[in-house]
Each structure stands twice: as C-alpha cells, then as structure tokens.
Design a protein that fits this description.
The protein is mainly beta and about 425 residues long. Helices cover about 10% and strands about 35% of the residues. The protein contains four helices and 25 strands. Helix 1 (about 270-280) crosses helix 2 (about 320-330). The protein is elongated, with a radius of gyration of 32 Å.
C-alpha cells in the first residue's frame, strides 16, 4: 500500500519583518506502524507499506519535522515542533474464493439451455472473525451447490455430482462498503488430454482457459448450449499482484466448479435407459484416462500420467463411462458397479438384443476392446443410422458422433441391453 503525506508545510516560512522570501527549512518525514513493514525504507514523503499476514487493527503514523532552523530573527520558532498524523486501519486477509451455482429445480443432471445462477463467495478474516462474503443476494428458496474441498472429482458412489451444501443465504455476509473493493474475474476452463504419446498409456492433462466475465460477483442467466463438463473459476483480487482462487489441496487437483448439463433424451424405450443416456451425456468433453471412472478434473500439464489400471482422477475410459452411467441411472449393481468390457459382455450385466430391438440406451460391446452406447437411432428410412456416445482413446475424450450399427457389428461388436438388478 502506498502512503503519501500531502499537506506538510514549514511553519516558519512566512512574511515577517518585511522579508518576503527566505530559504525553507528541510522537512523530514519518518513513518512508523504498529504492524506490517516498510520494504523500501520508512523515510520520505511517500513510502510503501506491506500489511502483515495476520488480520487485526493497525496504526500507521507519519512524523513531520524541520531541522535547519533558518527562520529570521523574530519570525517564529527556529525549529518548529514535530507534527504527527495517524491512520487507523483494520487488516483484512482473504482466505479463499468459492463458486456457488443454482438451477431452477433439484434434479441433476440439468437440461441444456437452462439458466443457471452463479455467485462468487469470498472468505475473509478481519478483526471480527472469519466470515463468508458476497455482494449479490442469494435466493434462499433455491438449492445452491458449491466447489468441494477436492474440486470436481466425484467418485460414482457419491450420489450428488457437485458437492451439496446446506447453504440458505443466512450464513452469508454482505461485502462491507467501507472495505476495499474486490475485482472478481470469471473464467471458463476446458480440460484436455494429449494423444497417447507417453509410455504405458499415459497422457498429459491440461486446461484451456478464457475469461467470460471481467468483473462481477455472479450472474442470474448463464446458459450452456453444449452438454458435458463445464468448469468455472472465480479469482478475487483486492490489490494488484495478489489473487485468491478456490482452495487447491495439491498441485495436480483442479478446483474449478463443475456444471454438467445433459442432453434432453425423450425417445429411449424405457425411463431407465433414458436416464442412462442423459447421465453419460454429462461426461462429454471429459478427457480419456485408462481405468478412469469419474468426472476427473486433475491436471498434470508437464508429466505423463493416467496410464494405470485404477482411477487416478484425470478422466474416464469406455467401460468406466458405461459403469458410471448405469450407477447413476439406478441400475443397482451394488459394489460391483464398475465393470470392464468383459464384465459388460456377461449375461449378469447385459443381454443380447436383435437388430430390430436395439435402441437408445443399448450398447455395442467387444469384450477386451471397446464399448459404445447408442444415444439415438433413426426411425427410418435407414434404421441402421445411430448416434453413439463413448470415451474414445483416439479422440482423447468423451464425445457423441454419428455412426451405424453395422459398422460395429461387422467388426465383432455385440448388440447388448444393460440389465438392472
């Protein structure tokens, strides 16, 4: 923080005894503070002061004095008494920023083009304690979701994809008007994976980031026109050079809020298969990770990772996508919810269907190789035309694309219908 003494004068410099002009005494400025430090020295008309890391009251004082005593005889004191001016402040420490969002309803996943409400919440510590602050009101009739401590990674056995909070607005304080204003920048983040160019099936995972709201505490009308994973991050800045973002427990854990709109599927043969397709559509755009089985989110832009058999938090693979979809759609596979392409081919978890029976929500599976899900089938004239959603190792992500049934069955894939238990 920059301090400047702007109204300091030499009291002896005045008209006296017919003298209208004479040398001015040398005025000195000495600064002191009950906390913090002066990194470039504490003397001079202008100084820089650095606040301490601990919040609390603080007093900054400047002492002004003249030292040369050049006043003519009879024209006042030779050396004016020192003068002091003080400023009492409260030091505030920003602890973290979080992003909340709400949707007009309680169902998850959410439908494309629905309007979301977003809010940035800043946790700050002042002499009165630690509180959460926002400068926009929350609708207390809505359910608000927030970033979890682990960011967006959400294992499939947790039923609510974003971490649910019981926030009602009553625990939120309005950002005080006498505090320094915050600049809050909002960014959209898209996670990507490189091609499998590393040994052992590993890839590098990183984020493409761009600003979509330069400054603001939130919005009431944010919409998404593409399904799948969208991540938001808010960065709060009180003064240049220091920023606060969502808590990041370790370097490889992404912390931006995840919002996952779904495709609106209404033509599947049963409600359960419809829910299944909706759920797997929420994973679109997620990077491919061998063994992956969740929403991912971790990043490792400089190191090859994600090639192990287990989920490492970076992305999802083909059978993991099917397993997450059945788990969240209520197929009730219990602790055995995570199946490989071999398990999905068994009669325990799926059954064969004919060409005519094959429909949205069914899979085309080749044990030990790959599995894709049908998200749409043409009613005619060419009923062979379908759309599929799958975690593609070639495309390095989950995507929906056009295809045909025979393109897969001609390569040894079986038409299967997933079983609910």
């Amino acid at each position: 923080m920059l301090f400047r003494c702007s109204l300091c004068t030499d009291q002896d410099r005045k008209v006296c005894g017919g003298v209208t002009s004479y040398p001015v005494d040398t005025v000195t400025y000495t600064w002191s503070a009950t906390c913090g430090s002066f990194p470039y020295g504490n003397t001079g008309r202008e100084v820089t002061w650095i606040a301490p890391p601990t919040p609390g009251p603080c007093v900054v004082t400047v002492t002004v004095d003249d030292v040369d005593a050049r006043a003519p005889a009879g024209c006042g004191a030779d050396n004016d008494p020192a003068k002091q001016a003080s400023l009492q402040m409260n030091v505030i420490r920003l602890e973290q920023a979080r992003v909340y969002f709400s949707y007009p309803g309680t169902a998850y996943p959410y439908i494309l083009t629905s309007q979301f409400k977003t809010r940035a919440v800043v946790r700050a510590t002042s002499p009165s304690g630690t509180k959460d602050y926002c400068a926009m009101l929350f609708d207390q009739s809505l359910q608000w979701w927030m970033t979890g401590n682990e960011g967006p990674r959400d294992d499939p056995d947790d039923q609510a994809p974003p971490m649910s909070s019981e926030f009602t607005g009553e625990v939120m304080s309005y950002w005080p008007s006498n505090w320094p204003p915050l600049t809050i920048k909002w960014e959209m983040r898209d996670q990507t994976a490189t091609a499998q160019s590393c040994a052992g099936g590993n890839r590098k995972y990183s984020y493409a980031t761009w600003t979509y709201l330069v400054n603001g505490w939130g919005e009431d009308n944010r919409t998404y026109n593409t399904p799948g994973i969208h991540r938001l991050r808010a960065t709060a800045t009180m003064h240049p050079g220091t920023t606060w973002v969502q808590t990041k427990p370790s370097l490889d854990k992404e912390v931006a809020l995840r919002i996952c709109p779904k495709r609106d599927i209404t033509t599947a043969g049963t409600l359960m298969r419809e829910k299944y397709v909706e759920w797997i559509s929420t994973y679109e755009l997620e990077p491919y990770e061998w063994g992956g089985e969740g929403f991912g989110g971790y990043d490792s832009p400089d190191t090859c990772v994600g090639g192990g058999d287990g989920y490492e938090g970076y992305g999802i693979d083909c059978s993991g996508l099917v397993s997450c979809g059945t788990h969240r759609a209520g197929y009730n596979w219990g602790t055995a919810w995570r199946q490989t392409t071999t398990g999905l081919a068994s009669d325990t978890y799926s059954e064969a269907v004919s060409y005519d029976e094959f429909d949205e929500g069914d899979i085309l599976n080749k044990a030990g190789h790959h599995v894709v899900s049908c998200s749409w089938r043409s009613a005619g004239p060419d009923t062979n035309v379908i759309k599929i959603i799958h975690a593609s190792g070639d495309a390095n992500k989950v995507l929906q694309e056009d295809s045909t049934i025979t393109e897969w069955t001609g390569d040894g894939y079986s038409r299967r219908r997933l079983k609910a238990h």
